[in-house]
Fold each of these.
Amino acid sequence: MRRREFLTAPAALPAAAQAIAEQTEELEIVSSHEHLLSEEERYALKPNLFTLLGHYAADDLRSAGLSGEPKTWAGIEPWWRHIRGTGYGQAVRIALRDVYGVEELNAETVPLLNERIAAANRPGLYERVLKKMARIRYAVLDDYWRGEPSRPDARFFVLARKLDWFCSVRQASDVRRMEEVTGVAIHGAADLKKAMEKRLEQSLAAGLVAIKTTLAYSRPLHFAVVDEREAQADFDLVMKAPQPEPPRRLSDHMFHHVLALASERGLPVQVHTGTLAGNRGMLDYTRPGQLNPLFLRYPRVTFDLFHTGWPWTGEAAALAKMIPNVTVDFCWMWVLSPVGARQALDEMLETVPANKILGFGGDYRYAELTYAHATMARAGIAEVLAGKVARGWCTAAEAVETARLLLAGNAARLFPQRRA
Ligand SMILES: [Zn+2]
């Protein structure tokens, strides 16, 4: 088959690298992390170009100077030119080119794109884009915007959900809402843990295969060991008056309980580490090394370090090298930093056991962008492996076997379609 072009037709690759790239393209993917809308939700949208730009690319547009949401071509044009080369910009361009047949985003092509995006938004899109184009066998779905955990479409997804809500109690109304959705009466920290357990049961009934946490968006990843009495003091505080931030002792105590439950149930925990989505993050909260005490305290829990902890990829690699129950996960990474991803993988393949490197998760809401991200990941993985073959680190056949592990084998083992 013709090797799919990455962004522009690359200079001819040496034959060995070409062969690895072609075989890597053929491999199926098990995506460790997606936020894809259900098909039903997707077809209920009236999407256009700006819908697609609204996920991640909007962050770079705002970082460049846009204020607000990308809504018109005139509004984004001054900024688009500065972000078309970033990973987010690349993903948009690949999606528009391969899914909608438009090579260049400009004033002339915007109306045509809007037309094509609208016309394609009907049943069959996911089959075409996710299965035929991206060759994704299935993906771990975090559909956090749906309140109640529900079983996702098994043709495409398995479920991951967060219990962060229970670790972020700030006011009495949070507690009342937890009582409503779990049916557990909550009078103190002990009940709060029971309510969390109930929520986990509800999620398991919907097919949960992993617990996810994005607490790094709102607090540092260091979780102190706090006894229930201290947690109760924070609980009392919250019930007396709304607090500006979730009190830390209660949050710490509850997160330890999340891990105790994960340990009991044999569930892996996907942890957000490294750079944050949006434009107002506290990067320092997200440093993966802060989790080190938890890895040792909960040896039966596999901690999957999302986004390879970028920019702390070396730190994530060191943790995954040293500690058996830590894995590194390249979800989001090939669009966050395409070069950083290649460098990190190059290093990790010679530091971290290959069965602990998860090579892809699209982390997108829209299927077209997940496809584009997968294209970037395949190209990056193939390039790194081809370099290793050239240096004699492995044979071409071994390189393809490694790619297979990174793209599907490791994620399929950690997040099986059916729990044992
Ligand atoms: Zn995500």
Note: Residues 33, 35, 142, 363 surround zinc ion (CB under 6 Å).
Amino acid sequence: MLHIYCPHCAEYREEEEFRPKGEAHIARQVAPESTSDEEWGDYLFFRKNPRGLHHEQWYHAAGCRKFFNVTRNTVSYEILETYKVGHKPSVTQQASAGRSSSKGAAK
Ligand SMILES: [Zn+2]
């Protein structure tokens, strides 16, 4: 069982309390009436499905009932960080590349 850190409750809770809600950091269209059908379709329906680091939105359904973001490795299921919506992730693809090479060097 995973224990996920909720940045609002400031404590680790069991994964059954949480619900994944898909990709994070999707910017709402500023002017939908002047957006092409293709751009609108991309905004509504198409999401990244990366192998590796992924920024996701999660919901603490059986807790504080607030949304927050998770940076997760989709290969290992490791959760690298959680942070409040509106904040930027500290773990990014570039930072992770540096991290994994330093981990590799330690082995
Ligand atoms: Zn919470």
Note: The first strand starts at residue 3 and ends at 6.
